[in-house]
Write a structure and sequence with these properties.
3 helices; 137 residues; two-stranded antiparallel sheet; mainly alpha; 2 strands
């Protein structure tokens, strides 16, 4: 429980420092990235071991968190089915053609198919601008 209080206090301290101009927002993001990497590492290290012990803790509460375990979702693979693989390849080719039609139109060109029909353009969806934090070597 002490660790959770310390983490929360550290978070509040970072927020206060940014709001009071003592810490740049980008520095707060770098701290956040470092904490995220540490949390991922802890999860990788101890998830398997924690799953072994989860049954004895199931339904109980620890540090404000109720503990349960459940099976992962069922997923299906289709790539080994020839008909599916052919369809998927055709879809990729179609998407590429529509994307090329859009990119060509941006340059003032038009793509037509073998019958002389104008190929429809894909509609671009632009992602939100992001800050990329990469640990320098």
């Amino acid at each position: 429980m002490k660790q959770r209080i310390e983490i929360k206090a550290m978070f509040e301290n970072i927020v206060d420092e940014v709001e009071n101009g003592m810490l740049e927002p980008i520095e707060a993001l770098i701290i956040s990235k470092t904490m995220e990497n540490c949390a991922k590492h802890l999860k990788e290290l101890y998830t398997d071991e924690a799953l072994i012990h989860a049954e004895k803790w199931s339904g109980q509460t620890m540090n404000g968190y109720e503990i349960t375990s459940k099976n992962g979702a069922t997923r299906y693979k289709f790539d080994h089915i020839e008909e599916y693989a052919t369809f998927k390849d055709g879809l990729k080719q179609m998407e590429s053609t529509y994307k090329d039609a859009y990119l060509s139109a941006q340059k003032g060109n038009v793509i037509v198919d073998s019958d002389g029909v104008i190929v429809p353009q894909a509609e671009p969806v632009f992602g939100k601008e992001q800050i990329v934090l990469k640990l320098s070597k």
